């Protein structure tokens, strides 16, 4: 057990300490000062808009590569990547244009799968 003298010494020391432990040059981390919000709830996140000409060029490059291929056995990883990425990329384009490119892509993939 703690002796009465020890408890008295601790209580005396605690009563002599300043109320805050922060240095005078350091801000109080737990203070009640108003802090501006880090994220404004009403602010919309910045919208990403790709360059549609670059998207079209990349999609045409993929279609050209598929049209030149004789079968899918050359690079199965690339075929899987194209199956994943191509439909998503067409989503940036106007609906009719994207649908036409997806149709052409599906046609080429079916041809290569049959080969």
Structure description:
The chain contains 4 helices and no strands. The chain has a domain at 52-114. It is elongated. 7% of the residues are buried. With 115 residues, it is mainly alpha-helical. The mean pLDDT is 81. It starts with a helix and ends with a helix. Helix 2 (52-68) runs antiparallel to helix 3 (76-90), helix 2 packs parallel to helix 4 (95-114) and helix 3 (76-90) runs antiparallel to helix 4. Helix content is 57%, strand content 0%. The protein has helices at residues 4-16, 52-68, 76-90, 95-114.
Q: Brief overview, please?
A:
This protein is mainly alpha-helical and 115 residues long.
- What is the end-to-end distance? 87 Å
Order of secondary-structure elements: HHHH
User: What is the helical fraction, as a range of percent?
Assistant: 55-70%
Shape: elongated
Radius of gyration: 33 Å
Total number of helices: 4
Structural class: mainly alpha
Low-confidence stretches: none
The portion of residues forming beta strands comes to under 5%
Largest sheet: none
Average of per-residue pLDDT values: 81
The number of E-state strands comes to 0
Key phrases:
4 helices, elongated, single chain, mainly alpha, 115 residues
Helix-strand layout with pairing:
Layout: H1 4-16, H2 52-68, H3 76-90, H4 95-114
